[in-house]
Amino acid sequence: MNDTESKGHAMPNEAHTLEIQVRDYECDMQGIVNNAVYQNYLEHARHEFIKTKGLNFAELTSQGIHLVVTRAEVDYKASLRSGMIATVLTTSKRLTRFKAVFEQRITVLDPEHPDRPKVCISAQINVASITDQGKPLLCKEMDQLFG
After folding, report:
1. Catalytic residues
2. Residue 8's pLDDT is what?
């Protein structure tokens, strides 16, 4: 854990949460987080989510099991700025024997509505389990993501 994030956590069937702090170099000339940086936040949160489910992404890869993004649908709703602290929420569900979707949101506290976080990003990231040769692979370990 470094100074820009906190440990993520999740209970079964609950959203995994990961707190992030926006760094200066992630912002563009307009002073807001560059659109591509959100993909990094989402990917980091997915990897942390996978760890909380007892899976090691690097270990799976070394075994020839690749969980690859096949589709990324990201809705940008509000901008993040340097120094802001945001929360990435991640859940997952199976789509087919070889595919799953991660549903993710990035939220910040809204001073105008402290009881309701403001959604900055809403995303659905589809992944597939494939071999080194790019063929679909039934990854039994993926079952751990859904319980």
Report:
1. 28
2. 53
